[in-house]
Design brief:
The protein is of the alpha+beta class. The protein is built from nine helices and 17 strands. The strands form five sheets. The chain has an eight-stranded mixed sheet with strand order 2-1-5-6-11-12-4-3. It has a three-stranded mixed sheet with strand order 13-15-14, with no helix packed on it. 29% of the residues lie in helices and 24% in strands. It is elongated and about 80 Å long. Strand 1 and strand 2 form a beta hairpin. The longest helix is centred in the first third of the chain and has 17 residues. It has two domains: 165 residues, no CATH class; 103 residues, no CATH class. Helix 6 runs parallel beside helix 9.
Amino acid sequence: MYTLFAYTRDPGNRVVRFAVSQDIQASMTAYLQEQMQAFSDDCEEVSFDGNYKPDQGEMLVIDGFDDLDSLGKSVASPLDVPVADPASLSFEQIRALFFGYQEADGTWTVYLQSFDRRRLISSAGFSIFHSKDTYKRIEGTGLTLDNKLAARLRGSKLSFFSFFHARQIFDMTSYYQEATDNDIKQFSALKQVHVDNVDELMAASDSWVRRKVWLVMQSNILGKVPPNDIKAIAAEFSIPVEYVSHEGEEKIKLPADKKSLKTLLRFLDEDYYKSPLSKTNFLTNSKRAV
């Protein structure tokens, strides 16, 4: 039987467990077991680098993931975890539901479902459910379990299919970074780059732009590829790249227009490629070195 826990944003109730009746416990365990089986070990594992979107049959993994809130310990010792009480805990603070078990080698494995307020059943409204040909009112606060898992934490190894769902549960900043204002200033100061107004660039940089800036900086593509090669390849893909001359050197001018800026950053992050067979140009939203 699996004990169901909630992982919350409430510092005073970071992890709580749900006390359920015996008959509900049995049916809930069967329901969760089906989801565990769907979270297959047959998938090919791809190390997460913030730059690759997994295909069907692949999953992303982070080795050495830090279980900061001791979810594995909660699964190992459920009676040490306080019971979820709607009187002292706002269910809107729940970020994930989880359960788990101990592997044969002694490792504790935790399975997690993402959770949002759409799955809340609140006493503030008037909720009804169908039972035996009639509708009955739902009294009190409740929630609905999802029909799929978002992540698995086996010891210190985190596996997941969607980064979007994983970061709704965990703080992923240590594993996936976005450029800070200081990073953008450093990027703007590169000898290969020209920016008319750094403050305006920082203000216009949303999460997507900051991610791409960080990836371009990490790849050092501007230092590796000569400007003439960048210019030639950009022309091959019909990507407009504007240059300015400064002290005898050509610099890439970052566009003030956000759409043009994103096109340029996609290009510098090598999101464009040419098919080796058809010689057709493509744009991809995920990359993996082969």
